[in-house]
Design goal:
Elements (H helix, E strand, L loop, with lengths): L2 H20 L11 H4 L5 H18 L5 E5 L7 H17 L4 H15 L2 H17 L8 E4 L5 H11 L4 E6 L16 E4 L2 H10 L1 E6 L4 H15 L8 E4 L1 H7 L2 H6 L12 E3 L2 H10 L4 H8 L2
Parallel strand pairs: 1-2, 1-5, 2-3, 3-4, 5-6, 6-7
Helix pairs in contact: 3-8, 4-5, 6-7, 6-12
């Protein structure tokens, strides 16, 4: 091999090595190294990002306070539930001995009886949004978990009022797709349930709980505990539809047993209509100033 060939080979090797250098993870800027950010050791950084990103965006959009709305993902508008009932009934006509299909039909009929909560959540959201949003300020902004059912209804009410609303989605094994009524740019996706909960309560001036399952109950007891212990200043916590809540949770029994004090029964109120829920919130006199002072802590 003559000198020219050796020079060419050396240059080729040099370029190949240089290419390996500039394309290696170690050469990437730290915030652009996704393999680094995904490591267990970087969990604290990821958690900080999940705290900071939504906070910055909500501040930029002048979201001063929120009303969080929780409720069942399976409670749909009446027409949609009727469609599902008809579909299952057709399957039963083909397979009348199926216990599973009959079970599904009974469940859908129960959900149909609760479809009025979808309408109420939408009406409440529209009422609140129209009364509290304008070009200069966004207070009492509706915030939901961003999914279907009652969450969709609440975001939809604000959407139909041409107002902003927020969705806090969560990354789940069965991927949750955001409903179509959240304000673009105000839908956030979380990896950590705990940090999602922080953003639910950070700006909350009130919370309305419609009938729901584990997720709704989890958020209810989380917020009741925060207010009970003084970790969050007392805000209106409204249980919508007393008949449902009285069947699901016997709060008085907890007080009678001495497991909670009688005063803790005053941490929440009941409402049957959107207007009644809104009047409870208005009468609480909690202002954006109260929320901003609490956020500093």
């Amino acid at each position: 091999m003559d000198k020219t060939q050796k020079d060419i080979l050396h240059k080729t090797n040099d370029l190949q090595n240089l290419n390996l250098i500039v394309n290696s993870d170690s050469y990437k800027l730290a915030h652009e190294d996704f393999n680094l950010l995904g490591r267990n050791e970087m969990r604290g950084v990821r958690m900080m990002l999940e705290i900071t990103k939504p906070d910055l965006i909500l501040e930029e959009n002048k979201i001063h306070s929120t009303i969080i709305i929780f409720g069942g993902a399976n409670i749909s508008k009446k027409s949609k539930t009727i469609e599902k009932i008809n579909e299952v009934q057709q399957l039963i006509d083909i397979n009348p001995s199926s216990k599973l299909l009959k079970r599904n039909l009974n469940r859908l009929k129960n959900l149909l009886l609760m479809s009025h909560f979808y309408r109420s959540a939408k009406e409440f959201s529209k009422l609140v949004s129209i009364n509290n949003q304008n070009n200069n300020i966004n207070s009492h902004v509706i915030m939901t978990g961003g999914g279907p059912g009652i969450m969709e209804a609440a975001n939809r009410g604000a959407f139909e009022a041409n107002c902003k609303s927020i969705g806090l989605n969560i990354s789940l094994p069965n991927e949750q797709i955001p409903n179509a009524f959240i304000t673009p740019g105000l839908c956030f996706k979380f990896n950590y349930f705990a940090l999602r909960k922080v953003h639910f309560v950070m700006r909350a001036i009130a919370a309305v709980f419609f009938p729901g399952g584990f997720g709704t109950l989890d958020e209810l007891f989380e917020l009741l505990t925060l207010c009970q212990t003084g970790m969050k200043n007392k805000i209106p916590i409204i249980l919508f539809g007393r008949e449902y809540w009285d069947k699901v949770i016997n709060f008085k029994y907890l007080a009678d047993l001495g497991l909670i004090s009688d005063d803790h029964l005053n941490l929440f109120e009941y409402a049957e209509t959107p207007l009644e829920a809104w009047e409870i919130i208005k009468s609480s006199n909690i202002s954006d100033k109260n929320i901003n002072e609490e956020k500093k802590n």
